[in-house]
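Fold this sequence, please.
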Amino acid sequence: MSELAEEDTPESIPPTGRKRIMVTLRRKAVTDKAIAALGSRPNVFQREGSLVRVVRDEGQLAKGVLREQLAPRIDMLPLPSLSEELTEAAQFYAKKLRDGAFVKIKVPPPSWVVNCVSARGTWPTLRPLRGVVECPVLRPDGSVLQVPGYDESTGLLYEPAIDFPPVPEDPTWAQVEQARDALLEVVCDFPFAQPVHRAAWLAGLLTGFARHAYRGMTPFFLVDGNVRGSGKSMLVDAAAVIATGRTAARTSQAVKEEEEEKRITSIALAGDPLVLIDNINRPFGSGVFDAALTGEEWKGRVLATNTMPRMRLNTVWWGTGNNVRFASGVDTARRTLHIRFESLEENPEKRQAFRHPDLLEWVRANRGRLAAAALTILSMYVKQGRADQIALKTWGSFEAWSRLVRQCVHWIGLEDPYAAHEALTESADTTATALDDLLSGWLELCKDNGVTACTARQAVAWLDEDNQYRSVSSRHVLRWDRLRSALAELMRIRHGSLPTERDLGYLLRGHKGRVVNGQRFKALAKSNAGIPWTVETISSC
């Protein structure tokens, strides 16, 4: 414990309003007092068992996520910064023997105090932080958070950069229609494939204002186009600017699931309200991303530590790409709300005729009015109790979001956004398509070899025999192309390459019993050669 100037005693220090804490061997009592004092610090919060603060970066790529300058993020409070906060919150003293008598001297917070405070896990005097918002948002009770500062009822820190007009207490239907039309003006220049895709974008925009008003999962908003340069990223940025005042935090499509898990952990820790996965150019989706979409909490290892905190994941995920395909073996398409562009221009980036030539600048200039429009719609919908009166198709896993956001979009006169999702899943279920090929190809393989069922070992042997014949006869065309294509898609191997017997067995067991086009795989009694697999036709009732 370091000593300061000898004359620096309590009696000689001017009053500062800080608590005075005597450092003794009673560590719990000293730690309790330090925590009590820490409650006075304006930028120290607790979040899911960790001490955190809110920081604003200068705009940089950090842990795979690019944020615009001064975007707020939640940061775990490092021990040196905690020591600084304790120094500002309290004056620590210790007794020291001097000239035969004990005197009180001023000391910095001892390292053991800092460590004990950090490790306590619960801090009664500190405010719980659920997130940071930069615009008014809807509360769970249907009211609107409009007063800057910390909101006790939600645990949100509201830090607006501009003054927002007040949201009407009891808006009329005419005001709701005006608000709807104001928001749709933002996207008047975009080539939506169908009106339902415009409704899906509005659902994504409203989700940013409603995310803290419901508990549950939120779909992935995918802006997909038929050609580059049609404005997909700008469409997402328009929604982001209205909600946050800046363009969307960006990340790229992860190559490996381990990398993706680290990025999601970083995003969960930072509390990013909106993240864009930009320029998707490979089959999209993974088990890790599916877990992020359908879990209310996220648990991941913090870099350079051994801690794995649980964090509430309230991020609204967006993505962009051209003719995006989904990876096989995952359920990402089922969790996606599709926003499709169909541009008839060969080079849409050269188009000149726009109502708002500099859209993002126009949105920034009108941000307050547009944010108030979004909340006018949501608050009126909640007050009218319309969720109990609108019957729409159920979207499993997203019931709470559907009751609040999806039904609200339909209530104001637009198409049900779920129709865009249905059209996507019908065309994008690559797993079902590949399984259909696998079943048909398996039937063809068995028939050509005079059997009704075969084992994984037999199938690989027949395919390999065909490959060998091709290697000695250049005119030979490989047989069973449909089966080979299905294996390449489902097992991510090169067309013409062969899986191992073991991997093929895992694939068959993994899809055992799944019905595709009235057919499914059925395992027969195990023999010395292995498990024979046959294709069973399911009779329709």
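The longest helix spans residues 430-448. Residues 74 and 271 are 6 Å apart (CA to CA).
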